[in-house]
Description:
Elements: E1 7-9, E2 15-17, E3 21-22, H1 28-40, E4 45-47, H2 55-67, E5 77-82, H3 89-103, E6 108-113, H4 145-156, E7 161-167, H5 171-180, E8 187-191, H6 199-207, E9 211-215, H7 241-250, H8 254-264, E10 267-269, H9 276-283, H10 292-299
Amino acid sequence: MAPNVPSVRLNNGLQMPVLGLGTYLATEEEGIAAVKTAIDEGYRHIDTAYFYQNENQVGQAVRAKIAEGVIKREDVFVVTKVWNTYHAPEHVEQAFQRSLDNLGLDYIDLYLVHWPMGWKFAGWTADDFMPMNANGKSVDSDVDYLDTWKAMERLLKTGKVKSIGVSNFNSEQLTRLLASCEVKPVTNQIECNPSINQRKLIEFCRKHDIVVTAYSPLGRPNMTDPVVGTEGIPKHALDDPRVLAIGKKYGKSAGQVVLRYLVELGTLPIPKSSRLERIRQNIDIFDFKLTDEEIKVMDGFNTGGRTVPFEFSNEHKYFPFTLEY
């Protein structure tokens, strides 16, 4: 098992492990095995979402490791998210309860608003997740994410969730939310990797005491996403000779160098993997530090190119990627 992963203090005083396991597209037996392996290897932060359709598997794996005595419930930080079709306040609580039931846990550590855009509600099955019009664009709702957030705040009072946050929000959306909220989001989960290092949004969040979680930290190598496809995905840093050379210096892989870079930017990366060797590598990044020159090399990959552009929803009034950050 890897050494203990450090944690960061959230703005509500709770602790969140600096590195977690992403689970998007990890389903069925693969998902269960990946989470079990990750927990055995020292991961104490697991990220899922209702949209991923694998909360059952994540919960099953966590409960199994609790039953084995490997962890106690309070040792593992479980994150899930409310999907875009459930932004109406009356749906937020129902969506949360469905996630809680899927996970089979007494509480969820962190519940996120997955995207600022609300879409038309059509039902609770996977077939209802992506309402599209004849032009291939999302069928939007007019729900304001501020109203969604009020429903999130009410969830906190139930004690069934410990912290609430957002995902894919830009600086203007966060500013607007911070001006009206009773409870500040503890985190903003955003795409962050060498191709889009998000330095400006990270700094904005830091000023407001909001932790940044980095999804797709390795740029989705070799992944075909049924939602966003693979066209236009920017070239990642994993095959670059300069990154490989940095890794060789420290006895690390290029992926470990990238994850270390993201930690040094101040983010909490959540790499997804189902392979034991990769799961083991991804957590083994806390015994070296990059030099200033090496950070500059990594900064040089930043083009702003996204692996998750979500362009089919770019006509929504709350589409977040119209701003630089």
